[in-house]
Amino acid sequence: MPHIKTIEGQLQAQGLKFTIIATRFNDFIVDRLTGGAVDYLLRHGAVREDITIIRVPGAFELPIVASKAAKAGKSDAIICVGAVIRGATPHFDYVCSEATKGIAHVALETGVPVGFGLLTTDTLEQSIERAGSKAGNKGVEAAAAALETLRVLQQM
Ligand SMILES: Nc1c(NC[C@H](O)[C@H](O)[C@H](O)CO)[nH]c(=O)[nH]c1=O
Ligand SMILES: CC(=O)[C@@H](O)COP(=O)(O)O
Q1: In CATH, what number is assigned to the domain containing residue 99?
Q2: Catalytic site positions
Q3: Ligand 2 center to residue 7 CA distance, Å?
Q4: What is the pLDDT of residues 70-79, one digit of tens each?
Q5: Which of 61, 74, 87, 156 could disulfide-pair with 56, CB 3.0 to 4.6 Å?
């Protein structure tokens, strides 16, 4: 059988620099996402000195700050965390759409992997479930995805 070349990212964070960008909006949820991301990185070999946390007002501001962080060249990977919870008006859709598109754009434009740890939920309960309770922790998932993607990109 011919050999199939396979590229997979190792989940080793030793020697890597990370920037976590976290919203102040819904901070009681977002602090759990941030903590999950930090804990994941430390457990996989990163050191505290190589992790920077930047706080922004809300999800809408995540892309511009992620863009500056990526272009500054001091981060191997970026992790965005936040929580947008549906209100009574279409505001939710606009905030989610721009944050999502903007974060994806930063990664594609700069080549720096950006983990997407932004909760977009219909209810507060759904956010709580995804911030370290019964449905896991999306901050952890975003940190893991950013690290794995970085390790894949390094082999290409
Ligand atoms: N409603 C939520 C927001 N809204 C605020 C915007 O993100 C933005 O900060 C404001 O419009 C000023 O530009 N942000 C969240 O992160 N979560 C929400 O539920
Ligand atoms: C997520 C939102 O946009 C939000 O909390 C705003 O609520 P509303 O639509 O009731 O103004």
Answers
A1: 3.40.50.960
A2: 91
A3: 42
A4: 999 999 999 9
A5: 61
